[in-house]
Design a protein that fits this description.
The protein is an all-beta fold. It is 0% helix and 49% strand. The model has no long low-confidence stretch (mean pLDDT 93).
Length: 174
């Protein structure tokens, strides 16, 4: 959508994924989509031509988990969070070659990963893991993420953002 004039937003292009898209991250002319497609939990789009976005690649984690959350700091650091399934619920991916995405590391969260924010190699995860709804991990060595701390919010965390050393969290009502 072209939102240069907020009172007259116009459609300039679209891409039919064929399944639910749960989150989007953009780096340069590349869009990363977290999807419910069990053969492509991550869909990568080339959006250099807004009128005609095209598929540049996909990533399948090998299971039936839905991709819920995505965050990208570069093509070599894409973070994909899943519905909890007993497999690691967070993958750290290298998508430098969108046609051949590789897993750099993973982390078992213990609940759905609903939102991800990464700042200075620190990952903030909004989760459904009871008693650990905010999980904070060190991503300095992406192949081996390390838990820094957990925060018990009392309710599932659904979204978060970060601004100047503060984390803002949307959680379930009491």
């Amino acid at each position: 959508l072209n939102a240069s004039n907020p009172s007259a937003i116009t459609s300039i292009g679209s891409f039919e994924e064929g399944d639910n898209v749960n989150d989007i991250a953009i780096v340069g002319a590349t869009a990363y989509l977290a999807t419910n497609d069990n053969a492509a939990e991550l869909r990568i789009l080339n959006i250099a031509n807004y009128a005609s976005p095209s598929s540049a690649g996909t990533f399948n984690d090998g299971g039936n988990e839905n991709g819920l959350a995505i965050f990208a700091t570069s093509t070599s650091a894409v973070f994909l969070g899943y519905v909890s399934s007993g497999n690691p619920d967070l993958d750290i991916l290298n998508a430098t070659n969108p046609g051949s995405v590789t897993t750099t590391g993973s982390f078992e969260v213990g609940g759905d990963v609903n939102a991800i924010y990464v700042e200075s190699n620190i990952g903030f995860l909004a989760t459904t893991n009871g008693g650990q709804e905010l999980r904070i991990i060190n991503l300095y060595a992406p192949a081996a993420p390390v838990l820094i701390s957990d925060v018990d919010l009392g309710d599932d965390a659904f979204d978060l953002t970060f601004n100047r050393q503060h984390v803002y969290i949307a959680d379930a009502a009491d």
